[in-house]
Write a structure and sequence with these properties.
Blueprint lengths: L1 E6 L4 H15 L4 E4 L5 H15 L4 E6 L16 E6 L2 E6 L6 H5 L5 E4 L2 H10 L5 H9 L3 H4 L1 H9 L7 E4 L9 E4 L5 E6 L9 E4 L2 E6 L10 E10 L2 E8 L4 H5 L9
Parallel strand pairs: 1-2, 1-3, 3-5, 11-12
Antiparallel strand pairs: 4-5, 4-6, 6-7, 8-9, 9-13, 10-11, 12-13
Helix pairs in contact: 4-5
């Protein structure tokens, strides 16, 4: 099996603690994708890539983007966690903001099982799976993706009957956005070829009309264009904005979250 972590708690200390906990619980060394703070868009795209890379094989993906400010104040201690399966892969994730928005768009799942952390912990105390002291610690921690997320994933992986409520996944991404900027400055977007209109070889974006090419190698030197990128799932690949031989993000002042359509 494999274990993969996608988390905006990504400084060295937080990263190592999460990796070690996953190793102890599952016996596997996890891969880790560190996100910029509060980036649900980056989490959404990265999750699609992880599912594509692992091909639905046996494994666990742990995803966390859980701000406590702004709209997140409606939650007692951050957005709830939920879970769904992609073939043989278990995904446990925060459910608010854009984190799961591409799951429905790509036809992976329309529903998610949502946990109440306090209910789950009290249930496991009754089952003598955890001590009351540990339950209190998990319920009140600010580092829920370390204390709760890997544990509940382990319980589910072992087929334990954990309480949850089923909710619909909402596709809340309205339009197209940059979800990742790679080390070359190429900008991965939430758009796929089938979702845009290509007129006279080009695509109209917020930044203007750009020529469309299927592959990076076809883009002339110095030209900024739209191509079909490598990220995505099965036959659906995300479009990227690139500049041949230059850094597109710097050239066009694009960053994660930039609206392009």
């Amino acid at each position: 099996m494999f274990v993969s972590i996608i988390n905006d708690c990504a400084d060295d200390n937080a990263k190592v603690r999460q990796e070690l906990r996953a190793k102890v619980l599952f016996g596997e060394s996890p891969s880790f994708i560190g996100l910029s703070s509060f980036s649900g868009l980056s989490a959404a795209g990265s999750l699609i890539d992880v599912l594509d890379t692992t091909g639905g094989e046996e494994g666990v993906v742990l995803v966390n983007v859980a701000p406590r400010h702004g709209k997140a104040k409606k939650w007692k201690n951050g957005t709830p966690f939920g879970f769904f399966y992609y073939q043989k892969t278990l995904v446990c994730s925060t459910i608010d903001n854009e984190t799961l928005s591409l799951i429905k768009r790509f036809g992976i799942s329309e529903k998610v099982g949502v946990f109440d952390i306090e209910e789950v912990c009290n249930y496991q105390v009754v089952n003598k799976r955890i001590a009351p002291e540990l339950a209190d610690k998990i319920i009140n921690t600010q580092f829920r993706s370390f204390e709760f997320l890997p544990r509940v994933a382990k319980w589910l992986w072992e087929k334990e009957n954990i309480p949850f409520a089923e909710e619909k996944i909402e596709d809340i991404i309205d339009g197209g956005y940059v979800w990742w900027v790679d080390n070359f400055g190429n900008c991965k977007t939430t758009l796929i070829k089938e979702s845009v209109e290509i007129k006279e070889g080009g695509i109209e974006l917020e930044i203007g009309k750009l020529n469309f090419y299927e592959m990076l190698r076809d883009v002339p030197n110095g030209e900024t264009a739209v191509i079909v990128g490598s990220s995505g799932l099965d036959g659906k690949r995300f479009l990227e904005i690139v500049t041949q031989g230059e850094n597109t993000a710097q050239k066009l002042s694009l960053a994660v979250g930039s609206k392009i359509v």
